């Protein structure tokens, strides 16, 4: 009823004015030029637009001397095209020189068509989409639109999103026209970029389910392309579902967002940004608002509006009247413009002769109004304009933070200092939750004293705690340390598609290196010449030396070939001797290992085999000792040659692993470098698992692994460990160059302030002091000093040369078997020749062999006293044959070689 009363008041005024105009034709000598306008009755702000239209005309008339604009207003429903057509024809019949409005796309089209036919200027102030198939110059010939051109306005929104670095976002819209307005925004993302989510709302006033879905998706950037009357209610419900927090950001596309009363949301922690076509603090808008209020007061009507809440359409009507009046004024100076009453249904259709000239003049004319510079393109669209980028603040409501224009894009009007001060001010007296996990030296449980009770932040100590404490003192906020429940740093689960652990968004700069056990440092003393071989090898060598000597001695006494005639020239010598006593056996083996040989050599096959195997062993050990041919003797001495990750990747003996679920694990999982890919494949396939639950577990595993396990971890944590565990060291350099940071949720508004506080602490040297305190001083730090590598690292152990001992043992075993066979063969021979039982012969020969002090024996074995009386006949026969056997043996020795030749043979064998 209030709106209807206002409309009736305006109609009554219009009738009075028309009567005066009809009767007189002129007012105070001014020529009358009627202008028509069509308004909708539904929107509340249409009344404000009508006021703006009328009082803009009044202000024009106050300054014009030759003509006066006469407003003629009609009202229609936004979706009633038929009635709209009738109203336009009525205005044409009354001789209007232009038609302003209406603001509905459904009814504006019919008005434009009629105006084009009659060549009456049609001036609109609403968003008008580009027709399918493109613009037609003929159809657009008589229309001027002061609302920003659709593509340019969409580009402004796209520039703002790019400037805000939004990688992903969700669009909430309520009509198809809304999506058309966001054409450029939908095109700024390519196929490889994060997807854009688009959600439409219907007439259901409950937006909570939609907002909860967006919250579940983790999206924090939202674009609202909805009617202004829905914006406040949607944001209220967003606040109820915790979607209006610090890390959510909203961009409102409506150019009337500044007219909404956000008083109840001014203290929300979310960032709300909007666009505005006018500078609400300009003199022009304040002057226009003053005219509106004073004019309504003269008409005995109340009207109150602040410049900060003027609707865009109202401002555009004011500017439209201004630019139209300018065109009339300047064209009327050359030729008098006279209105014509036209008919829509006339058979002889007439067109207004001045309409096209006025439109063309407006297209080339540049004006400056409440909404800034007004420039049109050839199609009558406003292609150049300025936008204010405004942000909701708790003190001033919407505050201008930047401007945009098609030439320069986004240009901020506030300094970085103002931004920083605003952020710091918002931090005052706030309490933040700082999530972390136990891990030295960053965060550790404080050691309790007897009877001491610790709670809150006092439970902890460490580098991270003191760093956060220093930042809080600079910025003036409170904090509460909390431990992450699962104790993980954070990793992405491909199945659930979620992060776990500490951080949803890790700062990607964490360096990695290798923790490995130091080699045992050997003391340098007078006996360092023993270093090429380990103690075990020396012990085994000495044992082998004694063992071979004893074996050679035993076998030589058992083998008949090593019992020789001491006087080869005497054929009737009835005794043979064995030169292989223990001293000679020791001398032979010592000479062999020293590489000097010996003048005497064994004769039996078994003893020769033992000597040969010993010479082979001595040759290998001597060359290993003198030349230290480690690479020749072993192919996997990785414990002494690991210097980098490449060395680890090339071998399979030493296992290596990382912290399960940590950033180092993620580094290897996602690396494109072939070496790291190979290392990751190796870590995944090894059983038991090489992954650990904590850095401490990895450290302990390296210590217990005795140089058979390496742990890859962040270099700073590794440095902390090597300062306290002196038997551990860092292998190689860094796998990548990175650093630590404070992780905050995506798009945190406090990032700038926190970074500034960290830089301040760095400039003051406090970060270096904290590093020195927690790495080198607290909890046992600084007790390890670098010790240069000793020669002991290169010693050969039993694992390197054990094969030589195995060959020697096998050779000696074979020689022993051959020696037994030789001994048994000799026993058989004696038994046959002496005509005694093999058992008697075996006992006799064994008894003599075990008499190690006896070095000579008769050619024929003497039987035991117990058997001598029973076998006297055999003894006499044996004595008769002794001479012939001695002669045979002497001949064998003489015909084989002389003693001098034997020495030469031994020398030659030794040389080989």
Please outline the helices and strands.
Layout: H1 2-24, E1 26-27, E2 30-40, H2 45-63, E3 67-76, H3 81-93, E4 99-100, H4 105-118, E5 122-124, E6 143-148, H5 150-163, E7 170-173, H6 176-181, H7 183-187, E8 197-200, H8 208-217, E9 221-225, H9 228-240, E10 249-252, E11 271-276, H10 283-298, H11 312-332, H12 355-364, E12 367-369, E13 372-376, E14 381-384, E15 387-393, E16 397-405, E17 409-412, H13 416-427, E18 431-436, E19 444-445, E20 460-461, H14 463-475, E21 478-483, E22 492-493, E23 498-499, E24 512-517, H15 535-558, E25 575-577, H16 582-593, H17 605-627, H18 630-633, H19 645-650, E26 655-657, H20 663-670, H21 674-685, H22 695-704, E27 709-714, H23 715-722, E28 728-731, H24 751-763, H25 766-777, H26 798-834, H27 838-850, E29 856-858, H28 865-868, H29 872-896, H30 899-911
Parallel strand pairs: 2-3, 2-4, 4-5, 5-6, 6-14, 7-8, 7-9, 9-10, 10-11, 18-21, 26-27
Antiparallel strand pairs: 1-2, 11-15, 12-13, 13-14, 15-16, 16-17, 19-20, 22-23, 24-27, 24-28, 25-29
Helix pairs in contact: 2-10, 2-11, 3-4, 11-12, 14-24, 15-16, 15-17, 15-26, 16-17, 17-26, 20-21, 26-27
Main location: membrane
Keywords: Cell membrane, Glycoprotein, Ion channel, Ion transport, Ligand-gated ion channel, Membrane, Postsynaptic cell membrane, Receptor, Signal, Synapse, Transmembrane, Transmembrane helix, Transport
Transmembrane segments: 537-555, 614-635, 804-825
